[in-house]
Amino acid sequence: MLDPKQADPQAAMRARARAIRETGGIEPALAKSAVPKLVEMTLSEALVLGLLKQGVKKYFAIFGHGSTDLGEVLRIYEQEGVTRTINCRNEVAMAHAATALRWQYGEISAVVTSIGPGAMQAFAGSLAAASNGVGVYHIYGDETTFGEGYNMQQVPKQEQGLFGRLTAIMGQSYVLHTPEAVRDALRRGALCVNHPYRAGPFYLLLPLNTQATRLTVNLAALPERPALPKLAPADDIAIDQAAAMIAKAQRVAIKAGGGTRGHDAAIRRLAEAAGAAVVLSPGSTGVLPDAHAQNMHVGGSKGSISGNYAMAQAELLIVIGSRAVCQADCSGIGYKQAEAVININGDLADALHYNLTVALPGDIGAVAERLAAKLEKAEAAKNKRAWLAACAAKKAEWAAYKRRRYECAPLHDEVWGKPVLPQPAAIKLVADFAKEIGAAKFFDAGDVQANGFQIVEDDASFDTFTESGASYMGFAASALLASAAADKPRYGIAFCGDGSFMMNPQILIDAVEHGVRGMIVIFDNRRMAAISGLQLAQYGEEFRTSDRVAVDYMRLAAAVSGVHSVSGGDTADALRAALASARGHDGLSVIHVPVYCGAHELGGLGAWGEWNVGSWCDDVQRAWVKQDL
Question: In 3D, which of 116, 125, 93, 118 has the Cα closest to residue 502?
């Protein structure tokens, strides 16, 4: 056993780290008496060990004067093979990478910044994790606790704990003003980042002067990652009521929200047993295979002919794992003929979002399986044949509508001064290539994202990640960095607009530094096409959503040693050749694709819903007031 009174604190820290690595973890080290149960250490080391006990071994970091002590602990633990730190160049980008690591791979990591501006940047980036229910630790430096004077970069105001208050608005926050409170902080953090239904970022604020404070830590008492059982209604009263409603109704639609991801088999069984048309959200593509007869594709303001038809015509709505986001459910008026709602959700507030609701709270898979069994026994799908036939006709109409755009020849673009690929055709080519090689797809905010979730043809959850929760520009390219940290990385393709790419272009450097294998495809239309289209639809004029500055993205990417830069050309064949070339590079590739933007009807996929924004607000909200749901 290590001597707890070892004279050299750094040597003692190194010895602990080595013992933990050699024995395989804190618990084995304690069981084998390789480390004592009670140890004197700094708050910074206690935090690293506490997070390690919860499975956090990876850190995305930009160190500053507000995190030097924590950085020293991570240096020693990395040298001993216990943790890994991925140094980054932009706090927003590394927040996205940490979010993607948890979202795509299920690995919990921590984001480490200094005090002030760095923390504010990471905090802004954490909006993506909060909006998509992804659990990530954020560790920021904070002002000292003695109040001896302003610390450089703290919020310059005569109040205490301002960053702790600020972060508490976004998620849950804990200021480690008292080092001995680390156990409580970690217990609260463990439940927040691992919450089964409402996970999100947890913010640990480390005052500069408490990081190096020494305290006695009981290693056995540090909280572990919680193991929570699946929950479902205790009896069948509500499930029987829901089953009877479904069996009686003739037009049933399921709205599959982001919470259905990973519950593919249960959602398919329930849909088939209910005879329901399934309408997807932008984040739930793949929950039901694309070609499944009951998959009506996305619904909402950027939905589809088939998805929005099912929403508008259903008499009974089954909402599963959805927050009822305004665009995805047409601001609450998408269900014009729905007379009642069945809502399956672990979060009670979301489960009771609509009136006239039978709420089935609990684990989506467990509840869906129980309800499906009841419906199968009652043969509830028998009276839905006419409904599903009508939905199938709309799905065929949507498929034909998309096909015309995919097969469209290059269109003359005024900005490019030549014919270039329409964006739907270009995105479809890249999405098909991703499916062919088994790559994960990441979509950035804007027109690329909106077209993307209308185009992708996924057959399983987690083939596409579209950050539609916060629509954070720059997420997709930054998310590729997660593969460099993952235990079992998957090749990824980031679908970016020109504006989104420029939000976080430092991925070009970070990707080479840390060995990312993937590609970024920049669909360049030289404008904010999504907003231009919205302005034109609402007011007939576009305003300040484009510029006259040409950027040579190929030269920009090629300027970074190790990045393979390729032109996507102006034709389908040229883009296919570029994709093959990019895939052959053992590292990060960037493909630049000029795309059309204009009034031609085949240049985009259009909007199909109603949304309370701009000049449409009055009509949508007037209709919402009349809704009984």
Answer: 93
